[in-house]
From TrEMBL:
Family: Belongs to the MurCDEF family. MurE subfamily.
Residues the record lists as binding UDP-N-acetyl-alpha-D-muramoyl-L-alanyl-D-glutamate: S30, N150, T151, T152, S178, Q184, R186
Name of the protein described by the UniProt record: UDP-N-acetylmuramoyl-L-alanyl-D-glutamate--2,6-diaminopimelate ligase
Record's catalysed reaction(s): UDP-N-acetyl-alpha-D-muramoyl-L-alanyl-D-glutamate + meso-2,6-diaminopimelate + ATP = UDP-N-acetyl-alpha-D-muramoyl-L-alanyl-gamma-D-glutamyl-meso-2,6-diaminopimelate + ADP + phosphate + H(+)
PTM sites of type N6-carboxylysine: K218
Predominant subcellular localization, coarse grouping: cytoplasm
UniProt binding sites for meso-2,6-diaminopimelate: R385, D409, N410, P411, R412, G460, E464
Job description of the protein: Catalyzes the addition of meso-diaminopimelic acid to the nucleotide precursor UDP-N-acetylmuramoyl-L-alanyl-D-glutamate (UMAG) in the biosynthesis of bacterial cell-wall peptidoglycan.
Key words, A-Z: ATP-binding, Cell cycle, Cell division, Cell shape, Cell wall biogenesis/degradation, Cytoplasm, Ligase, Magnesium, Nucleotide-binding, Peptidoglycan synthesis
Domain annotation Mur ligase N-terminal catalytic: ranges: 22-95
Species of provenance: Fictibacillus iocasae
Amino acid sequence: MKLKTLLSSLLHYSLNKDENPEIDSIEMDSRRLQKNSLFICIEGFTMDGHQFAKQAVQNGAVAILAEKEVDNAGVPVVIVNDTRRAMAILSDSFYGHPTQHMHLIGITGTNGKTTTSHIIEKIVSDANVPSGLIGTIDMKIKGKSYKVANTTPESLFLQKAFYQMKEEGVKTAVMEVSSHALDQGRVRGCDFNIAVFTNLTQDHLDYHRNMDEYMYAKSLLFSQMGNVYKEGTMKAAVLNNDDQASTAFKRVTPSQILTYGIDNKSDIMAKDITINSRGTSFLLQVPGHEERKVDLNLIGKFSVYNALAAISACFLSGIALDQIISSIESVRGVPGRFETVDAEQDFTVIVDYSHTPDSLENVLRTIKEFASGKITAIVGCGGDRDKSKRPIMAGIAVQLADEAVFTSDNPRSEDPAAILKDMEEGVDKDAEYRIIPDRKEAIEYAISNAKKDDIILIAGKGHETYQIIGSEVLDFDDRKVAMDAIGGIKK
Ligand SMILES: CC(=O)N[C@H]1[C@@H](OP(=O)(O)OP(=O)(O)OC[C@H]2O[C@@H](n3ccc(=O)[nH]c3=O)[C@H](O)[C@@H]2O)O[C@H](CO)[C@@H](O)[C@@H]1O[C@H](C)C(=O)N[C@@H](C)C(=O)N[C@H](CCC(=O)O)C(=O)O
Ligand SMILES: Nc1ncnc2c1ncn2[C@@H]1O[C@H](COP(=O)(O)OP(=O)(O)OP(=O)(O)O)[C@@H](O)[C@H]1O
Ligand SMILES: N[C@H](CCC[C@H](N)C(=O)O)C(=O)O
Ligand SMILES: [Mg+2]
């Protein structure tokens, strides 16, 4: 594609010379350049990509997109206000607007994005619709899994992935949309047909300055729904009516709205919820349909919210209600979300990705609803992430579990002892808890002391198969460590 053809999708830019090279690829990393590429300089959080312009030209770039003057080695330089956002628009054009050729469902919210997106993908593929998925655990194209670096990848990766999906015949794609991605404009250019909101509680206050800014970032998914519109295409916001933030999203979205809820009157509702240690049942109310009983294999009131969000999105996508219900009833769970580690021991071990105050509280309250033995919570907090959630999470663990064990999550560049100190700030001086900084030892301690009917919650890392200590990424999987520890005591 010629440079000027590519640039025609931008509202505004300036070009320093009247040249029009052929562009065969778009790149944002000077170390991974191809011949005849357009190099996009990004001022990042750790590096300024503008300093690599000359290196990029030496490595094959024939044009540069930047926010300021660069050492360009003679190639055309395009100046725009914001290169990350321009990259999203250009990538969408370069790959032929792939999301305009499929039904795209985006999910945002503090908790439940991964779970809800996996449920939707299951319902869609059970309905024999070729499906794609992008999120925290992986990217899936018609069931085949690929690695991703971010929950919501950078636009360049994203549009290339959608192009691959389109080429492979994907008709419906579902993706998690993180607040970071919205803030950085990674999903500008995505033609969302349905935008789903799960809930908003505290997280990521290391990145967003306060809850209002965090909510504003989330609201962009809904306010930008009208940015790409072709007459006749479905555009809808699916909002949790029991969460206050939905009021703001209702105001900013230009699209049709479908609400779901348990407590407040909503379009799609769950009533008469019953929870046991194996699942959750409820009566489902959907407009134009008789009330229906749904038996989920997923546990907790929060699982009902995820189910309602998924049912609402699939209902709007035109999948028959019978089909939706039979699929959702067959969902066995999502890796690392309330996943039990079972070696036929007489106590229960649950690995769960609760790394926010709200998710930890929900999971512990859910466990309390069916526990007959002692509840032990193993909890840590990530380094280089929202520090203000540390004392809150520690307080919740002490308050709701019978025994709280504080340990390390991914300390990253921080001192694990300092993170544990921050956690301790949240508990009363006379409260009882145990500190075991080494995560493996913490898990082994809890398992070797478990008695019949006890429940051990290993929170925070869910599906993760690594632990980041300093700059090292070490093999670590809570499920495997727990399984080995159970094996050890059964010998
Ligand atoms: C804070 C943040 O969002 N960082 C993201 C950001 O990195 P950055 O701005 O630091 O990039 P940088 O290293 O400064 O580099 C700037 C530019 O220079 C270029 N460069 C750099 C070196 C070089 O030699 N040559 C070169 O060209 C880089 O390719 C880049 O274009 O841009 C990168 C590329 O897209 C992201 O991978 C990276 O995510 C990091 C890994 C991250 O941890 N992000 C988290 C905070 C995040 O986004 N999380 C959310 C999920 C949260 C949730 O689910 O709860 C997510 O969507 O994943
Ligand atoms: N609807 C919900 N409300 C509150 N907590 C939830 C909900 N759904 C799941 N959780 C809890 O949050 C944890 C993370 O769930 P999930 O991975 O689905 O969320 P996410 O939004 O994708 O998180 P992340 O932003 O880290 O990717 C789960 O392990 C569970 O403890
Ligand atoms: N997407 C989340 C993941 C946190 C997972 C937890 N294990 C940690 O490392 O803090 C974040 O980046 O905040
Ligand atoms: Mg996720």
